[in-house]
Amino acid sequence: MWDKRIPLREEPIADMDAVRQYDRGARHIMMPQYKYFVWKITRKGIRGGKILDVGTGSGLLAIELAKVKGNQFDITGIDISENMVRKAIENAQQAKTGDKTKFAVADAAALPFRDKTFDLVVSYASLHHWRDPAAVFEETARVVKDTGRIIIRDNKRVYRNPCWRAFIWLISIFINRRHRENWPKAIMACYTMPEIKEIMQKVRSKNYRVTSDFIRFDMSIEWP
Questions:
Q1: How buried is 112 (Cβ within 10 angstroms: 0-12 exposed, 13-18 middle, 19+ buried)?
Q2: Residue 201 burial (C-beta neighbours within 10 Å; 0-12, 13-18, 19+)
Q3: Phi first, then psi: what are they for 107, rounded to 5°?
Q4: Can you tell me the distance from the alpha carbon of 62 to that of 10, in angstroms, rounded to the nearest whole number?
Q5: Cβ(122)–Cβ(54) below 8 Å
Q6: Angle at CA of residue 173, ends 167 and 176, nearest 5°
Q7: Which has the least CB within 10 A, 19, 63, 86, 219?
């Protein structure tokens, strides 16, 4: 059934060849979304502070944040895959954003940071990988300052939508085989908005919002 969530069974992307394929595909598929996400962040007036990027992958979102003109960001990206972190460091060096970005291997459900460390916690297209989303939400709430913000975005599970399936088919012409095979699986592993709201009931922080605004295929969880 298209309506039922199908969790991803694969381990985190570990093989360096797979990491490189992911990075190449992300530059085509995800970059417009990363740029939109960065625009949303700066539109809120956020131009400085310590930022944590959870599930940074090959670091492209962190790098886009570091490129914001006149920013005063100090960005830390974490990922559970060592080779993803290596690729993120390589990408940051090539983009010459190493003075504003650093990357580390870490588990999102057990963040190795002190309470109230960050002014902003962000994540894009990582939520559907988390085995225990409520635990990650709790951890992000722990490490963000009282005056800080958390913005987590991911796709919604809308693969049943014929427009979305047609969009995937069209994009598949231009992407590598790995993304062509795995993107539909990732969509089926995503959550619906009612499911996220149910999960959020388990989280101590209740001052959150769940919205959808990127061509209605994305979902944003923000608090406060």
A1: exposed
A2: exposed
A3: -95, 125
A4: 25
A5: yes
A6: 110
A7: 86
pLDDT-flagged residues of the chain (< 70)? 1-2, 10, 159-181, 214-216
Per the DSSP assignment, residues forming a β-bridge with 191 are 156
Whether this prediction's pTM lies above 0.85 is answered by: yes
Cβ-contact 38, 220 below 8 angstroms: no
- Tens-place pLDDT, residues 15-30: 999 899 889 988 988 8
**Alpha-carbon distances, residue 92 vs 52, 67, 144, 205 (angstroms):** 15, 10, 24, 34
Contacts of 213 (CB under 8 A, 6+ apart): 220
